[in-house]
């Protein structure tokens, strides 16, 4: 099999690997983190070229152990929260800047897209390899 076809297969797994890595980190923060409430201070709308918009929320919350106030940001679906809203979040005590919102963005759509991309590339590589083998190109 030519090296370019192998590279196509390898590069098609990159979005899935990134998605699984981020999803795992999200899960670990929710599982091992401390749950608390925070207040949305402000939000900035991030729009993609032809995609949907998401809100970048700036959130302030109080550390339940030390009582110290922390500020961080998280992403949520467009229009779900507005400034002044109370949000439930999880954070790790040693890294309070990394937070996960309850009801925030999901990784399921990107996971499904990654699987479909891999299936498409596997089919395309199979067809290309068949064309090279038989000489029908």
Give a quick rundown of the structure.
By secondary structure, this protein is of the alpha+beta class.
Break the fold down into its secondary structure elements and pairings.
Elements: H1 3-12, H2 14-32, E1 34-47, E2 53-62, E3 69-77, E4 86-92, E5 95-101, H3 108-134
Antiparallel strand pairs: 1-2, 1-4, 2-3, 4-5
Please explain how this structure is put together.
- By secondary structure, the chain is an alpha+beta fold.
- It has one domain: OB fold (Dihydrolipoamide Acetyltransferase, E2P) (Beta Barrel), CATH 2.40.50.
- It is built from 3 helices and 5 strands; from the N terminus they run H-H-E-E-E-E-E-H.
- Strands 3-2-1-4-5 form a 5-stranded antiparallel sheet.
- A hairpin with a 2-residue loop joins strand 4 and strand 5.
- Helix 2 runs antiparallel to helix 3.
- The chain starts with a helix and ends with a helix.
- The model has no long low-confidence stretch (mean pLDDT 88).
Structural class by helix and strand composition: alpha+beta
Biggest sheet, open or closed, and with what strands and sense? 5 strands, antiparallel
Give the H and E element order. HHEEEEEH
**What is the total tally of β strands?**
5
Q: Could you tell me the radius of gyration in angstroms? A: 21 Å
What general form does the structure show? elongated
Instruction: Give the fraction of residues assigned to helices.
Output: 40-55%
């Amino acid at each position: 099999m030519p090296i370019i076809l192998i590279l196509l297969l390898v590069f098609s797994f990159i979005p899935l690997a990134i998605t699984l890595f981020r999803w795992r980190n999200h899960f670990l923060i929710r599982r091992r983190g401390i749950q608390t409430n925070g207040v949305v201070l402000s939000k900035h709308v991030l729009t993609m070229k032809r995609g949907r918009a998401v809100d970048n929320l700036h959130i302030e919350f109080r550390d339940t152990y030390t009582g110290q106030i922390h500020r961080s940001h998280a992403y949520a679906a467009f229009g779900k929260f507005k400034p002044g809203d109370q949000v439930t979040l999880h954070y790790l005590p040693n890294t309070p800047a990394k937070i996960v919102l309850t009801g925030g963005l999901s990784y399921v759509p990107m996971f499904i897209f990654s699987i479909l991309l891999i299936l498409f590339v596997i089919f395309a590589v199979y067809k290309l390899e068949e064309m090279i083998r038989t000489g029908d190109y």
